[in-house]
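Sanity check

After download, print the first record. It should look like this:
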Amino acid sequence: MVNVSAPGRICLFGEHQDYLGLPVIAAAISRRIYLTGQQRADKQIILNLPDIASKESFELAPKIEYQKDRDYLRSTLNVLQRRGFTFSQGLEVTVRGNIPINSGTSSSSALIVAWIKFLIQLTDNPKQLSAKEIGELANAAEVLEFGEPGGIMDHYSSAIGHIIYLESDPVVKVGKLKPHLGTFVLGDSQEPKDTITILKHVKFGMLQAIQKIKTHHPAFNLQQVTAAEADSFRSLLTPDEFSLFQSNISDRDIVRQAKKMFLQDQVDSKLFGQLLNQHQNNLRDAKRISTPKINAMINAALEAGALGAKINGSGGGGCMFAYGPENPEIVAEAIERQGGKAYIITVDEGVRTETGPETIKA
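Expected structure tokens:
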């Protein structure tokens, strides 16, 4: 019997920055996906999914045909087989977890990361893979295989764990940060995310703004322009585009300041909270990815004593989180009074093999 698990994640700093070539900081959280299973005598892959009252089964083949959009469980096997892993026996697996689903906390990425960790232990030719390699394979199975627009933050965060600093330009570089941050409260608004509408405004609006600037200033570089220089580009952009432009420069600088702080021995909790709040202001006002309900949950958390709070993920619904190292229970109660579902969480390690049966929190 093989038992593995992988964490969900929150994006501490850098929403809507990665596709602009700007860095992000993400944290693995103490809510996880768990896989338990073993080999079968036949060629069947059977996946029991009791959390969603579902079951999937299919037969091993050199190339497994997809049965639906984003057929991640099958695509993972295809990706591994193309990388040289072979499977002569079927598998039966039970998948359970306590990561909020479809809420921006990367439950699907955690599932794929855990699935890879499980599969490479039961392949005919097992070999050790680093956490970074597992993250890259998970990204190939979830994003590249289906031509999705996502980045690799979710997969690296779940695989590597703790807090990661990720750069994607000019090449992908990921490093682990180890500040002691204490307790957060995750708040699920239970509103479905509207990612397509959000991206239309935030991603494509900003890419259009950059193109306009580069038409007049070919050497323009978003990583190098200073906040003081931003106003010189105002006349080239619409008011909405300029607001996005300013907010992205501000968020870029917030990430840099947070990284500098995290590299120190002692984290300034109040400054950390202030940076979260500044980031939220940009996400709410310029990028407009927050919602009235999430705004109310954030305000309630701050009034209850949280040091900082922000929306998590692409936006338009989903989750927020609050930094409440001293009074998480009071913060959680405040979030739930606004109609959210609250979970007290901490930063957690990455994908791992479990040594025994785990008790899964509700």
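If your output differs, re-run the checksum step. Summary of this record's structure: The mean pLDDT is 94.
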